[in-house]
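Worked example

This section walks through a single chain of length 612. The input is the sequence exactly as stored; nothing has been trimmed or padded.
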Amino acid sequence: KSVIFLPSHKSHVDYLVLQSVIYRLGLGTPAIAAGENLNMPLAGTFLRGSGAFFIRRTFKGPEHDLYSAIVSAYMEGMLRHGANMKFFPEGGRSRTGKLLQPKVGMLGMLLDPILAGDVDDAYIVPVSVYYDRVMETRTYVTELLGAQKRKESLRGMMEQAQALMKMPRSRYGNIHVRVAPFFSAKAFVAQHAALQRSTGARANFDARLNPGDRSVLLKAMAYFVLEEINRVSSVTPTALVGTALLCAVGRGMSRTDLIRNVDWLRKEVVRSGGHMSRFFDFPGELTAEVVDSALSVLGGLVETRSAGLVETVYCIAPDRHFEMSYYRNMCCHVFIHQSIIAAVLHRFIHVRPHDHEVRREELMHDVRFLSRLLKYEFVFSGAAGRPREPAPGQEKTPDTPAGGPDRSDWGDVQLTNSALQQNFDAALELMAAEGVVAITGGDKSTITVEPEHKTKLSGDHRAMNSHSTFLCSFVWPIIESYWLVLAALRFIFERRGVDGFGTGQHAVLGEVATLHSRLQAFARTLTDLGHVHHREAASEEALRKALQTYVEMGIVQWVHVDALGAPRRSVLQLGETYRGAEGLRELAQFVEEIGSYRRFGQRSQYGLEDFP
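Given that input, the structure is written out below as tokens.
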């Protein structure tokens, strides 16, 4: 039977890393599904000799059905002969350090012959590949800030290879490969079908005959693979140092503080169920060596200042914070559930400054909303879509903060209520054990934020609660991105055609790519004006996902209109609920609602006259 390796995708180096590991283990190296953009002279020949077969980046176009059938037949032929294969479930390289949402096209081609009974089975192996330093991060930042993606070329690859050859061996540190337990594709299909049928909602579940059921199955398997990759992924020393420096209250951090914070963070990773790449149980006196090793790998991302100072101070180099966020994001999967709770509590403290208690169900209410708002940003535990019934006595609750409109049915929600509840309960217990909150009441229904924690969380002075600030740092940049998009949409529709961008209160003309570009220009302007704290909030990827989410929520919608004698045009309209004066007021309230989750000190709601 074939073994299908499904690795994470951080760098072009991924194509060769796993091949080398498998070869050294004495196993048959897999065929690699690679994008046709890599099929260049010399490089394409080399990759093909390493097992690559090249396919189009997208199957769209007039020949879609034919091309898809050819690739499917090719993969089925390999499965019939028991050939091993490797492809990336994310589709492309992650430019942020987090796992991307899965692409299920290749996975469908893998499962279809198994569903049809033409292939007996295949074994699927999720693989995590992490790096102490990724060589492409600087390029990723320029692309996320709007620069045109540089087309792969032989010259570019030669230049990159030449630069690598000249670098010291330790320049990029280590590569960390961790393999999750394999599972049978056939067994997964059977178990998921049985689980779906047992709930009653899909009593006739049949992924072979019903396209809707097939889609549900593919998403379930894809998210299960990504969950497994996250579960076994390593947190590298560079991720620890990068996260510590990004959470610094001042401009920099002394050597003593950096070593202490890295040691604390390493313990938090382990306590929260994560894996360290190395030094899992290293004694505290070795932390300094770990920090020095990471600093040498991070190189120019960190400035070291010691001349004329009492103690060495480290700070992130100017204009490199966005790039450093890549390494912070490499450990976000360990803390994301705690981070969302921390962000909700941070909001609660400032919206209700005189209260120091919040009901558990009220906290869960907002956590559910924020989790689903950011569903395209993170791979949450339980996102594999396994159907679960609510626990006894547990009721479904709306998916919005109190007072907001009912948006409980928007989008293809990946997280079930029970999965969210399980994540929430486990994360809250971890936060209580650390003293960030206290769980009180006979039924543990009250969450208490002690007054001293409230003061520290508020950011009114430098002695901030480092734990809460650290947790919020994983979601604050993304929340700002979502606020920026909503604020921009409000600006666009209320200004009605400023700069030739809009054509009326209810419609904005322009292709999707053009709108993304203008949204990013809006975000960069507010960032430069100081209204936005996190530069990575202007990331093209986050802004694009935010717009996609708001389309699903019905706030805006794309429609195509035909004009006499002109090409068909794409029109962005406000959703029906948000049209007219009353609707725009509701949109403004929702902008403020999202903005209330932002970092304190960056929440002032500027009037439209203050927007660019």
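What to look for: Residues 385-414, 457-465, 497-504, 603-612 have pLDDT under 50 and may be disordered.
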